[in-house]
Design a protein that fits this description.
3-stranded mixed β-sheet, Neurolysin, domain 3, 2 domains
Length: about 500
């Protein structure tokens, strides 16, 4: 090939790339607009707006579908896949190809039906939860199970439908390895919790007894967010019925309940949501508008667990936070960092609500949801039987039984949002968070000690440079292997919980 021919080919590829990226930017910005519509629906929208919002979300989804699946996009992808591209550009093409194929395989009518049903189901779930009436949500729930099962079948009729749905959140992992993680965590925690229940050690169980003004709690949480590293120009903290995070590198939002009787729980959920928010903010600004500039779903929850558990459940973190609590709530000056540390790690307080559960039983809460929704999607369980099965599994794994569906199978919003196969990501996030913490110890020293010294910038810089800034540029298992030397390995999580709780509960024999 002559030099002039090579130059012409390069010019053609460059022109196609420019047109391609303009279309990709449109797709990604529409998706970001959809995030904001859904966030507004869950946090701020008046209930009377549900019908219009359902249509808005459905139509945005429909436009995304049309842009991703038209012939022009297919032609550009074919040309670029045969071109000599950098790794970064190859990944962008790969991700858009995956998106296009999923949209093509999914009929537009099914996509719009799923989105509009999710929007309606969300408010029906909320009403059912408030009324403690599962039957009010059951029809929408059943419809979502039907639609998402059909979606899995359309994508790959020969594969396990639950594994197909999980791949939407974690496309680079082998699902069988994820199931193995679940089984190992479940079995190890069953043994550990049994030992803890036999322990005679008495921990502080409720360091922050009393009433705490929700508005002052918000001020305290903003103090805490500033302490751990928080860009107030790009972030929001709001009140909502349940914790959630939404956003991207320019606009990261968290919200949740500020319970006047549970300051400890408020601090815990804010730390949990702050992890993904900080991840979004660490993504490269110049990668906004393309898929490699987006957060990875698994790493989203790795950061939630890292900040809530590895950092937020350490005694060193509480030594740093307590002065800020004393300032906002002077009546707490009798509470020590050790008191707070014991309270937030107390295990025998087995709460029925997942977001209020302690670190160990919370993992078993995830197992309960995982097993139920997998049976639903695989056709082994009927929606009408979910309340009874839920209650039985709570008794089996947690030793407690819900007295109402509101504190049982209606407590989570995920199924109302059609997010089946999302719960496994929480458990995988816990496993990788422990593995990352172990790697950080080798590179920068123990992050818990750094937190106790107020050196949060050191922690943030390490996370950003090694993990967060890459977004979806690399497959998740490969990125974790590059940082830690191993692909996701449950060993580090098991070591973390057994070491910490063995020390707390004096489990010499464990």
């Amino acid at each position: 090939m002559s030099e002039s021919t090579k130059s012409t080919v390069k010019d053609d590829v460059d022109s196609t790339w420019e047109q391609f990226m303009d279309r990709v930017s449109t797709l990604r910005n529409l998706r970001k607009a959809e995030y904001i519509l859904l966030w507004d629906q869950e946090v701020m929208m008046p209930e009377g707006g549900k019908e219009a919002r359902s249509q808005q979300v459905g139509k945005v989804s429909s436009v995304i579908h049309d842009l991703a699946t038209d012939d022009k996009m297919g032609e550009m992808l074919n040309e670029l896949e045969n071109a000599d591209l950098s790794y970064r550009k190859e990944r962008i093409v790969e991700k858009i190809r995956e998106h296009r194929e999923s949209e093509i395989n999914l009929p537009e009518s099914l996509e719009e039906d799923i989105m509009s049903t999710k929007s309606k189901a969300h408010l029906e779930w909320r009403n059912a939860r408030d009324a403690d009436d599962f039957s009010e949500f059951a029809p929408a729930f059943e419809r979502l199970v039907e639609l998402r099962s059909k979606q899995a079948s359309v994508i790959d009729s020969d594969a396990d439908p639950y594994a197909v749905l999980y791949a939407d959140y974690d496309p680079d992992s082998d699902f069988e390895s994820i199931v193995q993680i679940r089984d190992e965590v479940r079995d190890e925690l069953d043994l550990l919790i049994g030992k803890i229940r036999e322990s005679d050690v008495e921990l502080e169980t409720d360091a922050f007894r009393g009433t705490y003004d929700p508005d002052v709690q918000q001020e305290l949480c903003r103090d805490m967010l500033d302490m751990i590293g928080w860009d107030s120009d790009r972030c929001r903290l709001d009140s909502a019925p349940y914790p959630l995070t939404s956003g991207y590198q320019y606009d990261s939002r968290i919200a949740g309940p500020f319970d006047e009787h549970d300051l400890l729980q408020t601090i815990s959920w804010v730390l949990h949501e702050a992890g993904p928010a900080k991840y979004q903010l660490a993504l490269k600004d110049d990668e906004y508008g393309n898929p490699v500039g987006d957060a990875n779903d698994v790493l989203h929850h790795v950061m939630a667990r890292f900040w809530q558990n590895q950092i937020g459940r350490s005694e060193e973190f509480w030594e740093q936070l307590m002065p800020k609590i004393y300032e906002r709530f002077p009546n707490t000056t009798h509470v020590t960092a050790r008191d707070a540390y014991e309270s937030i790690n107390y295990v025998r307080d087995d709460r029925l609500v997942r977001t209020q559960a302690n670190e160990l039983t919370r993992a078993l809460h995830i197992v309960i949801r995982w097993e139920i929704e997998q049976d639903l999607i695989e056709g082994n369980l009927h929606v009408e039987d979910v309340p009874a099965v839920w209650n039985d599994k709570c008794e089996q794994y947690l030793g407690i039984r819900p007295e109402s569906n509101a504190e049982g199978c209606l407590q989570d919003v995920h199924w109302a949002n059609g997010a089946f196969a999302y719960f496994p990501v929480y458990l995988v996030g816990s496993v990788i968070a422990a593995q990352l913490h172990d790697a950080a110890v080798d590179d920068i020293g123990d992050p818990r000690k750094l937190a106790g010294e107020g050196e949060f910038d050191v922690i943030n810089d390490w996370l950003r440079e090694n993990v967060l800034k890459h977004g979806k540029l690399y497959p998740m298992p490969e990125l974790i292997e590059d940082v830690t030397g191993e692909k996701p390995n449950v060993k580090y999580y098991i070591d973390y919980v057994t070491d910490k709780y063995g020390d707390l509960y004096d489990l010499d024999s464990y």
